[in-house]
Amino acid sequence: MDGLATTLDRSSFAAIAQLTSGQSPATLAQSFSDWWTHILCSPGRQLQLAAKGGRKLMRLADYAMRSASGSDHEPAIDPLPQDRRFADAAWKRHPFDLIEQAFLLQQQWWHAATTGVSGVTGHHEAIVEFATRQMLDMVSPTNFIPTNPVLQQRILETGGQCLVEGARFFCDDLERLVRGEPAAGTEAYRVGEKVAATAGKVVFRNRVMELIQYAPATETVRPEPILIVPAWIMKYYILDLSPENSLIRWLVGQGYTVFCISWHNPDSADRDLDMEDYRLLGPMAAVDVIQAITGTEKIHAAGYCIGGTLLAITAAAMARDEDKRLASVTLFAALTEFSEPGELGLFIDEAEINLIDAMMWARGFLDSSQMGGAFQMLRSNDLVWSRILSTYLMGEREPMTDLIAWNADGTRMPYAMHAQYLRRLFLDNDLAEGRYEAGGHPVSLSGLRMPIFMVGTETDHVAPWRSTHKLHMLTGAEIRFVLTSGGHNAGIVSEPGHPHRHFRVATRMQDGPAPGPDTWLERAELREGSWWPEWSSWLGSHSGKAAAPPSMGAPERNYPPLGDAPGRYVLER
Description:
Elements: H1 2-20, H2 25-40, H3 43-69, H4 96-114, H5 122-138, H6 149-158, H7 161-179, E1 200-205, E2 209-214, E3 226-229, H8 247-253, E4 258-263, H9 275-294, E5 299-304, H10 306-320, E6 326-332, H11 350-363, E7 365-366, H12 368-378, H13 380-393, H14 402-408, E8 413-414, H15 415-427, E9 437-438, E10 441-442, E11 452-457, H16 465-468, H17 471-474, E12 479-484, E13 502-508, H18 517-523, E14 525-528, H19 532-541, E15 563-564
C-alpha cells in the first residue's frame, strides 16, 4: 500500500504540474490567504490604503484638468526607469495620456497594497506582489488595440496589414511549437558554422560530458590551461557565440590553452544522474584528462551559473582532500549562498519543489520549456507581453541574433540532479552552511584558499550580484570581484568594443575583512568597457611564463582526438 499510495500521489501532483506549468496552486492560495487575512485584520492599513487611493484619484483628476486646459503637462506619475512601454510620444496625446496615468497610479497603489502588511510572511508577500504585478502586466493598456495609440497608428499606416502579418507569424510559431521545431530565424545560426565555430577537438567523452580542447592561436601559451565549466541548464556555446563575441575564441587569442565541457542533453534514461555524478564525471574527470594531455601541475578553472556552483563544490572537495591542482577559480554569475536568490526564490518552497519533483518523476527530466517559462515570468514585460505586441499585433518580428538563437536551443535536466539541487542548495542552503556532502563527506567553502575571480552582473534576475558577493563571507581567499553592466547572459557576453559597457572592480586580499555589498560598491573602481581584459590580466598575474602549446589530445595516453569541435552532445535536442 505504501508504494501504491506514493505512486498515486506523485501521479496526481504530476498532472497538476502539467496543468499549471509547474506552478503550485497551493503556494498561490496560501500566499493570498495569508495576505488577505492580515489585510482584513488591519483596519489601520485599510485606512492607509483608502487614503492612498483617494490621493491618487485626486492626482489623476488634477492632471486631467491641467491636460485639458493645455497649461501644464507635468505628469502625475512617471513610469519606472526600466518600464519602456509608454516611451512613445503618442502616449502624451489625449485621451491616451489619461489611460497611461491611470494605469501607472493603479499599479503603484497595488504595490503598496501587497507589500508592508503586518504579519504576512516574507515569501508569501513576495508571491502576492509578483502575482499581482503579472496580472497588471497582462491588462496593461499597451496590450489592446483600443487603448494603444502606437498600435492604432501602425494599423492605419499599414492598412491593417500588420495584423494579417502578425496572424501569419502566430500560426507559424504555433506550428513550430507543435512540431517541436526551433524558433523562426534560428537556422541562420547553425551550431558549428556560425556559432560554436572556434577550432578545436573533442578529446574525451563520457555519459555526462564531452571535453573540447581548442586549437592554439598563438605561438606560445601560458603553461596553466583554462577549464571552463558551463551550466548544464544551457548549451555551452553561450561562451562561444559568433567569432566577434566568443569568450573562448578571445581567450585562445590571449595565449591560453582552453578546454571546455559540453554537457550531454539528458533524457529519461538519465533520470538517476545526481549532483555527485556531475561532479565526478564533469570537472573532476576533466581535470584528470587535462593534466594527462598537457602535463601541467596547475589548472585555472572557470564556472558559469550552476556550473560555477558545481565548480565551487568541486574546488572545496579538492581542498578538503588536499588536491592542489587548481591554480585559481573564476565564477561567472554563480551562487554559492542561496538564502537570497532574488525573484527566482518565488518558485522555491516545499510545495513548489514537491510539484516539480512529481513532474520530473513522471518524465525523468525537466524540460527546457518548463524552465524557460519561469525565467520569462520574471521579466514578463520584456520577454512576454512586449514580444506579443510587436510580433502578433505590430507584425514585426524581432531580428534574430546569436544570443536569441542560443537561448532557443534549450536543454533538459535529469530528475535526481535537479531535485537534489533545488532542495539541498536553494531550499536548505546546505553548501553555505557546511552540510553539503561530496564523496560522502561534507565540504566547506572556507577551505578555498586559491585566488578567486568573481563576476556579478548589475541586472541579474537569476543570480543577483549581492548574493554572489556573499562568498566574501564564506572564505578567506583572495577575491577579485567584478560587477559588470548587463544581465545574467548579456553581462557575461561583453566583448571588448561592445558599446555602453562598464564595470566596477575591487580586491579583498587573502584573510582580509569581508566587505558588505554596499561597502564594496562604495570602494570599487568604476571603469568603462569590457571586463574581459581585466580577467585576462588577472589570470596572467597568476600564471607562469609562456611556452610552446601542448598537443591536441594525447593518443599515447589514451586520449586521442575523437572528432572536431563542437562535438556531438551540443547538437542533441
